[in-house]
């Protein structure tokens, strides 16, 4: 089975939210071509999963949820093949079901309880098994991706390299990458991050994926960082960079 990659990420509300949710097999494959293909759906890699609240539309082109619970969260794979192909290619869709309502979420996203704009916060987040980063506009996120002590971290978002993600000079206790002042229109997307680590005198490669979504919901593992500590780290980083530049200038003049 060949994995084509992330096709979409969706965040939906549970049964208290009345609008039905549908997942299309693929936006990239033309409708006529998709109709002629053999199609099957999987959830979290399993062909057999509960479909009590799912309706299959147009010969498996889409699945429609008649209701939602948090148990419906997961990775839904639409696997397709057409003759003479013998193996399926799968397009994966990540669905996260949360509680609450749209109005409540909008309020939490932009305002505090007293109606005033909230202050930006810095977080350290460990990406959990749901592969989701819930991020609030303007907040800064140190993101821990790997258990190992890794080097050479690089990330793509939706298949393209991203300059907005910092991957170097980050304290290991905070995270492996850094997104400053989260911007929903720029930073929302599907991330794939690669890194290296040493084991038994040989270099191993690791890969982690996650989706960043603008959402007021807390992450499974998150810790608010003290602003004084963060400011001290950024100040030290600036000082070291400045001194290094001065050193280079002096060496050049000598």
Shape: globular
The secondary-structure element order is EEHEEEEEHEEEEEEEHEEEH
Largest sheet properties? 5 strands, mixed
Provide the helix percentage.
Answer: 10-25%
Spatial separation of the terminal alpha carbons: 61 Å
Q: Segments where pLDDT lies below 50 for 5+ residues?
A: 1-7, 101-115, 238-252
What is the helix tally?
A: 4
**Mean pLDDT reading:** 77
Q: Hey, roughly how much beta strand do the residues contain?
A: 35-45%
Radius of gyration: 22 Å
Structural class comes to alpha+beta
Name the strands of the widest sheet in spatial order: 13-14-10-8-17
The strand count comes to: 17
Protein name: Ig-like domain-containing protein
Domain Ig-like: 18-96
InterPro entries: Ig-like_dom, Ig-like_dom_sf, Ig-like_fold
Organism: Cylicocyclus nassatus (Nematode worm)
Keywords:
41% strand, single chain, 18% helix, 17 strands, 5-stranded mixed beta sheet, 4 helices, disordered C terminus, 254 residues, alpha+beta
What is the topology?
Blueprint: E1 2-13, E2 21-24, H1 31-35, E3 38-43, E4 54-57, E5 62-65, E6 74-81, E7 89-98, H2 102-110, E8 122-126, E9 132-135, E10 140-144, E11 151-157, E12 160-161, E13 165-166, E14 177-179, H3 184-187, E15 189-199, E16 202-214, E17 221-224, H4 227-253
Parallel strand pairs: 1-7, 8-10, 9-16
Antiparallel strand pairs: 2-5, 3-6, 4-5, 6-7, 8-17, 10-14, 11-12, 11-15, 13-14, 15-16
């Amino acid at each position: 089975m060949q994995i084509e990659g992330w096709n979409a990420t969706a965040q939906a509300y549970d049964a208290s939210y009345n609008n039905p949710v549908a997942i299309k097999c693929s936006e990239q494959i033309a409708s006529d071509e998709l109709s002629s293909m053999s199609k099957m759906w999987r959830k979290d890699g399993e062909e057999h999963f509960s479909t009590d609240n799912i309706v299959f539309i147009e010969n498996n082109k889409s699945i429609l949820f008649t209701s939602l619970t948090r148990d419906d969260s997961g990775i839904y794979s639409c696997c397709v093949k057409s003759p003479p192909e013998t193996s399926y290619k799968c397009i994966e869709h990540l669905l996260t079901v949360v509680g609450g309502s749209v109005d409540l979420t909008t309020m939490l996203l932009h305002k505090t309880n007293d109606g005033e704009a909230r202050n930006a916060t810095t977080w350290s987040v460990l990406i959990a098994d749901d592969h989701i980063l819930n991020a609030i506009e303007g907040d800064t996120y140190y993101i821990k991706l790997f258990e190992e002590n890794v080097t050479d971290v690089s990330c793509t978002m939706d298949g393209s390299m991203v300059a907005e993600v910092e991957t170097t000079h980050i304290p290991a206790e905070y995270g492996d990458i850094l997104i400053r002042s989260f911007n929903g229109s720029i930073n929302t997307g599907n991330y794939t991050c690669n890194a290296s680590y040493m084991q038994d005198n040989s270099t191993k490669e690791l890969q982690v994926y996650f989706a960043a979504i603008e959402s007021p919901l807390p992450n499974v593992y998150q810790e608010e960082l003290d602003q004084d500590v963060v400011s001290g780290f950024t100040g030290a980083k600036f000082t070291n960079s400045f001194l290094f530049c001065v050193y280079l200038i002096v060496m050049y003049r000598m």
